[in-house]
Amino acid sequence: MVLKGKKILPPKVEGSLTVADLVDDIFQAYNSARLREGCQLFAQKMLEEEVTVGLSLSGALTPAGLGSSCLIPLIENGFVDWIVSTGANLYHDSHFGIGLSLHRGSPQVSDVELREQGVVRIYDIFFDYDVLLSTDRFFRELVKADEFQCEMSTAEFHHRVGRYVDERERVLGLGQRSVLAAAYRADLPVYTSSPGDSSIGMNVAALQLEGNGLRLNVSSDVNETAAIVLGAKRSAGKSAVFILGGGSPKNFMLQTEPQIQEVLGIDEKGHDYFLQVTDARPDTGGLSGATPSEAVSWGKVDPSRLPDAVVCYLDCTVALPILTAYALSKRPPRELKRLYKRLPELHGALEAEYEASER
């Protein structure tokens, strides 16, 4: 029967309405309904104890304050287990953790005037040019330390950086502002799919000209992320992807399943849960190949799990606070999986299955 959905007859909106009630009772149709479905998928299924949740971040989300407001609570409550991010999000996240300021602004202000005043603009986010220079100095000094004079995955790099940012927050009495610091405290691995495509990568490259020994091993990233997903499945659990925006982090997170199946020849079926917030469209190429149904053809999503896939065509800065508040009101904290500490074990299990595969 087609007419089996709940009747559309929402109650009046009152001043005492909670976020959960707003989502469940007022979001009836169009993209509000997709956000309702996304909230319910996240809280009811993706946050079950046996599910490993990967989060991908693209776009300028941390400069907008979504790190301290949403991402840190998700990390601290065990609602996210591993992250793939653009380097830019992590670079701008560091501003907050080392005591630098970003401000509300207006997109109508003259950029010529801003340039003359030494102010940088990310749409309606303003900050002094010295914020960039100070953050560059912070990363350059870190990368010169002895512990960085070797080859490492981006997860190891970010874990080490997060330790320093966590200490800076403590010394300056800032409270908890940085996603990298929160990930360090939670032993949550954070990857960058294109480490050269950010100011962090630019400073690492500059120091290589001076003979610095840091080398970021992207092949380790590919195998470690595949090992995380395989480990989730082999422990009688499930794998969920929570995608904010798109771009390289989205593909890097989703390609874990083709890496396991197609390249390594290991028997697997795809991610179990798929939640994406995006303003891109498949017909213009911005989302092509990566809607849940298209992802099935790549082996990225288990075809039997398509009912547990939701795409919200919405601004992430609107959707993420609602998703976060909804989940926190519906689910108790989960025990932290602390996957960073388990990476050697997970990588070893991946190697063993690869060696045993017919490939």
Please describe what this structure looks like.
The strands form three sheets. The protein has a six-stranded parallel β-sheet with strand order 7-2-1-9-10-11, sandwiched between helices. The chain has a three-stranded antiparallel β-sheet with strand order 3-5-4. It has a two-stranded parallel sheet with strand order 6-8. The chain has one domain (30-99, 131-356): Deoxyhypusine synthase (Deoxyhypusine Synthase, 3-Layer(aba) Sandwich). The radius of gyration is 21 Å and the shape is globular. It starts with 18 loop residues before the first helix and ends with a helix. α7 (154-172) crosses α8 (179-185). It is an alpha/beta fold. α13 (292-297) links the parallel β10 (273-278) and β11. The mean pLDDT is 95. It has helices at 19-26, 30-46, 66-76, 87-97, 111-117, 129-143, 154-172, 179-185, 199-208, 218-234, 247-254, 256-263, 292-297, 316-330, 339-356; strands spanning 51-57, 82-85, 103-104, 119-122, 125-128, 151-152, 190-192, 215-216, 238-244, 273-278, 309-313. The chain has 15 helices and eleven strands.
